[in-house]
Specification:
The structure holds two protein chains of two kinds. Chain A is α+β, with helices and mostly antiparallel strands. Chain A is built from five helices and seven strands, in the order ααβαββαβαβββ. Chain A has a six-stranded antiparallel β-sheet with strand order 2-5-6-7-4-3. The N and C termini of chain A lie far apart (about 55 Å). Helices cover about 20% and strands about 45% of the residues of chain B. Classes of the chains: A alpha+beta, B alpha+beta. Chains A and B meet through helix 1, strand 1, helix 5, strand 6 and strand 7 of A and helix 1, strand 1, strand 3, strand 4 and strand 5 of B. Strand 6 of chain A pairs antiparallel with strand 4 of chain B, so a sheet runs across the interface.
Amino acid sequence: MKTTIIAFAAVLALLLSGCTMNYYGSQLPPVPSPPQPPVGESVQVPPGNASPQPPPAPPLGANEGQPGASEPGQPVPAVPPAPAENASQPSQPPIANETGQPENATQAPPATNVTAPAANTTELPANASGQANASAGNNSTYLNASLFLNNSWWFHPVFLNFTKAPSVNFSFTMVQIDGMATTSELDDAQNSIAALEGTGNHKPGQIIVRQLLQKGKFELSEWRQNLVVNSQLLRRDVAVMLLNSENDAVGRWCFAHAWPSAFSLGGMDSQSAIYEYYVLDYEDGYDCT
Amino acid sequence: MRFLAVLMALAICAALLFATGGAPAISSKFRMKADGKYIGGVAYMSGFGDSSKVITATVQGKQIKSAGPTSYGDSRGLVVVKQLNSSALPPSMPSSNTGALEKWYQDSQAAPGGLAKDFVVETLDEQGMVSALYKAYGAVPVRFTKETGADGKAYNVFSFTVNGIERDYEVS
């Protein structure tokens, strides 16, 4: 009897600690929702973007961190849209309506059959506080970086749905990107590999890689910022090595023509290590062990 | 049986320790700077980032993904900052500029469309040296609440929308 009570208390305490692990997410204040259009009316997105645009980056080396670098209250100028890398891509990206279908899909060049943007398949989950993401209602063509916000992105159904363990028994991952000296790691590696195995070979998709934030380690960041700031979309091949506890390679996944579609700086507190997260979109992922 | 009970008790202790230890305290791993001044008492900052529009097209039977304009805005660039209330600051901590965020929020409430500013996040290594510097553009405080943390201390919690984030390679 006593043992049962103790066991019950232990389970309760563990559950409580689980809640605390998501402390920050669970304590989030409600996100103010953007104004919604009337029902039945498609969302009108201004060309390029529905939201304020990021400013053009100042020249690298500008003394931004110094006092006076910030100009309070200054309007943020727009950045030119990134040109499509492929010549057969439409010069203007399709704009999604509420149903997530591109409005100008019919205006695409004949050779290019524009389908629903891949990011549309990513339905935004409620975050840790149980509130639906404010941006889920519109503008859903954008891969939502707020999945990362508040460390609550693992509530994403993509990850929740994969409870099956990967067929390969590995302890670590090492992500190697063509032309980069530094390596990173696959985020949520077990679930990601299980998902890849479930998806099968030679499919387009996304992986999330993370890199411990360190001085001088900015190749990934540079790759992303080249796209955001300079509109240079540079595709690279990526390999993910699966390593066992003795650092022996036990598997390998290859991802062709990957590019960083999203970036997030991980949450920061007094205890945790700080990571940079990158979503890499690839055209062809396959087991290349 | 007794062994099992001891094991359970240990599990409870560990869980309770975990449960109470997750509360934020002033972080020595990063600091926040706005208007050229460091903001005192910042304990936690949520992750934030940006994403690009993904265009999927089928060209000659092959699916191609490409990039559209980068998007921030809406709630994507929402940053939550937890700051120890100045009343909860330990005496050893410098309390200068702790009211800057609250003042910014109040000014923003008064300004039509909010008051956008840039802020800087510096991450620090174990030696206390700056390991990386990020510039966040066009931040507008949209929400301010006061709450008591799991550690029993009073916190000011601010939510900002942010237009963009960029790492400064010159520094980091």
